[in-house]
Amino acid sequence: MDFTFSDSELRFQDDVKKFLKEHLPSDYSDKSFVGDITQEQKMEIASSLRKLLSERNWLTLAWPEKYGGLDAGYIRQMLYREATAYESMPIGSTMGVDWVGPAIMLFGDEEQKAKYLPLIANGTDQWCTLYSESGSGSDLASLQTRAVRDGDEWVINGSKIWTSGGHTSNMGWLAARTDPNAAKHRGISTFVVDMNTPGIEVRPLVNMADEHNFNEVFFEDVRIPDSNLVGDENRGWYQVATALDYERSGVAAYAEGKRNLERLVNVTKEDTSILKQNPASRYELADRWVELQVGYNVAYRIPFLQSLGQTPNHEASISKLYGSELTQRIAQTGLKLLGMEAQVTSGSPHAKLGGAIAKTYLSSVSATIAAGTSEVQRNIIAQRGLGMPRG
Fold first, then answer.
1. How high is the mean pLDDT of the chain?
2. How far is Cα 80 from Cα 97, in angstroms, rounded to an integer?
3. pLDDT for the residue 247
4. Residue 358 within a domain
5. Backbone CA torsion sign across 95, 310, 57, 111
6. CA nearest 119: which of 16, 217, 194, 189?
7. Is 260 found in the same domain as 290?
8. Which of helix, strand or coil describes residue 172?
9. Which of 15, 68, 152, 226 is the most exposed place for a label (fewest CB within 10 A)?
10. How many domains would you assign to the chain?
11. Distance (Å, rounded) from C-alpha 368 to C-alpha 378?
12. Is 268 within a domain?
């Protein structure tokens, strides 16, 4: 397979890089890495960027033109993600663009398309996906949150966990059980939920790196209109699985990993004693760089397959598995490289990279858990890629 990008594709990525240089604050990526920018500042920058990006229809590159996109295809969308991830561009949640919008295009009625798609395309609405529960993380089909029909409304009770961006989203894409007597994959439906609806409570989950990205979301007698049901009742599992097939290259992990590895290399150039004291680290840095190039090739293959009309299920799992584990290896390399100095936190004159290495390592722990554990990815690769039977 030829991974050479066309001249027009490369020019497009250059345009994205120029946009970022013009509209992102100076040294934003490095400041964000060391924690010199607050969450409130990030949200303010993200809001401004969404407006500018929506004017160019870059938020919805791969969407059809009739829904506010450019119909630019998956390759350009991947190149856009690569450039923006390298610069750590804050934009808020991409769930609406990546998963919710395409699902509404496929399964929503015309009224739902007219109501929700324009607000996703122009960056007004921020979406979260309400899937995982405390007892059904990897086994999503075992979810227990109930939606019970009451006249022309649905009443929702239950809870969700690990909801990324739930505290900053105004809209939610909910999977709930509507037929408790059906087989677990057949009794689920999907709904659109306004996160400001009475009865919804969002509680923060702060990780061990003192970051707030995830949340618990509780539903207590939450009433939504029947018009919020998307597609056929009890067909939600199929809709969720289909939505997960969009924009799955995983290239962002490699772009972020590249930037972090470059930071580590620059530290060794600024302090030449690091490699003198630990010469083997030179080879470890080289290993990580080679692994990154492998990862890029894995990620690049996915939009090429999509452009041919194929659905890269197990290929996407390979990219996710490899990328998340490489994220951890790069973080571990940073700890080894700096030794005890890696544990010095920000504020100390002895802190390397603003004291962010230890925090990056702690943050990386969840990489092999979030968005599908490594074990789940290996099962998908075995079953769908190698044709092996279920264990």
1. 91
2. 13
3. 55
4. yes
5. negative
6. 194
7. yes
8. strand
9. 152
10. 3
11. 11
12. yes
